[in-house]
Amino acid sequence: MALRFEELDWQETPMGDLFLRRRVEPTLGVDVYEVKLGDEYLMSSLFTEAEEQLAHLGLAATIGKNLAVLVGGLGLGYTAVAALEHPEVGSLVVIDALPAVIDWHQRGLLPVSATLTGDPRTSLELDDFFAVMRSEPHGSGYDAILLDVDHSPRHQLSAAHADLYTPDGLRRLARHLRPSGVFALWSDDPPDDDFLADLDAVFATSAAHVVSFANPLTGGTSTNTVYVAR
User: Fold this and answer.
1) Which listed residue, of 99, 147, 163, 226, carries a Cα 20 to 30 Å from 154's Cα?
2) CATH number at residue 74
3) Residue 9 domain-assigned?
């Protein structure tokens, strides 16, 4: 078990100071890994159920085998590793705009790093996911795009991300999908009817799945949302 509090890395980024820390959660007696960007807490290894369900729900909607999957946002790695649990995944590209996050996994600093980097299907790429979605597609496209970067379609880490969550932005993203391809998105907010309407304007089907999980800090239940559109 780690010390009560340990800072594993600190980096300056264009979006603010980025911290990776490990601490002991006293109520559970377990190590918890946390990421903070500026004044905002981005993620915690104490709560990974919804990030994992982003992969499971998204890939459950796909068709076929040897799937090409793109994950936007590497973070602690739980969405990507959950995707690798599906044997029909043939290749997994994970894009992150922060070199420090990719470096954490390459250095094996996080609990799932070895699983992620040790799988030959995985490619970690330093890039701006939102810029990639605005660009012209290359190759034959993806069977699934799984996105976990912003807090929600209405609460973005950067104003430069906002255009993706509009019908025009979603159409640009859809160009990167193969026929019958799936777009899945994690959100910290409850289901958003206006965003569902935007999804319906672009995709044939869409749904908002509420993912519930135990919150040991409050002693209650918390929820996130996973949108799935095909």
Assistant:
1) 99
2) 3.40.50.150
3) no
* Strand 220-229, strand 177-187: pairing: antiparallel
Question: What does R_g of the chain's alpha carbons equal in angstroms?
Answer: 17
- Distinct helix (H) and strand (E) counts, the chain: 7, 11
Assessment of whether the complete model's pTM goes beyond 0.70: yes
* Whole-number Å distance between alpha carbons of 145 and 149: 12
Extract the tokens encoding 54. 């982003």
Contact 206, 228 (CB under 8 A): yes
Q: Which pLDDT tens digit goes with each residue over 85-140?
A: 999 999 999 999 999 999 999 999 999 999 999 999 999 999 999 999 999 998 88
Q: Which domain holds residue 119?
A: 46-229
Q: Using one digit for the tens of pLDDT, what is the confidence trace for 148-186?
A: 999 999 999 899 999 999 999 999 999 999 999 999 999
Number of structural domains (the chain) is 1
Q: Is 5 exposed, middle or buried (0-12, 13-18, 19+ CB in 10 A)?
A: exposed
Q: Is 135 within the bounds of a domain? A: yes
Rounded to whole angstroms, the Cα distance separating 116 from 119 reads 6
